[in-house]
């Protein structure tokens, strides 16, 4: 699942970067005697309709997340339904953000981060403390978050290590 997400992000990154390098067309010089009065409609920011992701895709991803969590955390039936609803909301939000803000990468990242934080908070309310701790540990392993046990990596060249 993680490799699929990373591959999808890597596949779309070049197009996202190219999409941001657009140039504005230069305005045409005004010809004497043909000035047009400006309307207030052109001053207002155009609103584009919000795109919605395909519901089948959203449900498939949310169901896959839920079944993985059910197996890994031994969820009871009530927890399974609550976690499924949380996952549906989160996946729908992330996919909508990807569709609507693909030109604004920073805004998309901010929205996706907010959705992730809200999801964690909701999961913390549904899962038992032991289940949530186990979920957090697995999540940190997948995301590559270093743990506090021991020193990670090698010291910088020229600096003494902590054991010296």
UniProtKB/TrEMBL annotation:
Residues 1-19 form the signal peptide. Residues 134-143 have a biased composition (Basic and acidic residues). Keywords: Signal. Residues 20-52, 134-164 are annotated as: Disordered. This is Periplasmic heavy metal sensor. It comes from Hymenobacter volaticus.
């Amino acid at each position: 699942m993680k490799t699929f997400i990373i591959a999808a992000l890597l596949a779309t990154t070049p197009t996202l970067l190219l999409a941001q390098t657009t140039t504005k067309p230069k305005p045409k010089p005004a010809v004497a005697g043909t000035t047009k009065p400006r309307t207030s409609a052109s001053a207002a920011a155009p609103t584009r309709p919000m795109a919605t992701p395909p519901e089948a895709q959203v449900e498939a991803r949310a169901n896959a997340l839920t079944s993985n969590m059910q197996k890994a955390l031994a969820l009871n039936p009530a927890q399974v339904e609550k976690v499924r609803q949380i996952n549906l909301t989160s996946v729908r939000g992330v996919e909508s953000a990807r569709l609507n803000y693909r030109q604004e990468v920073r805004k998309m990242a901010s929205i996706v981060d907010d959705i992730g934080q809200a999801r964690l908070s909701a999961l913390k309310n549904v899962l038992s403390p032991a289940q949530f701790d186990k979920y957090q540990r697995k999540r940190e392993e997948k995301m590559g978050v270093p743990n506090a046990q021991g020193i990670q990596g090698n010291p910088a060249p020229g600096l003494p290590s902590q054991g010296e």
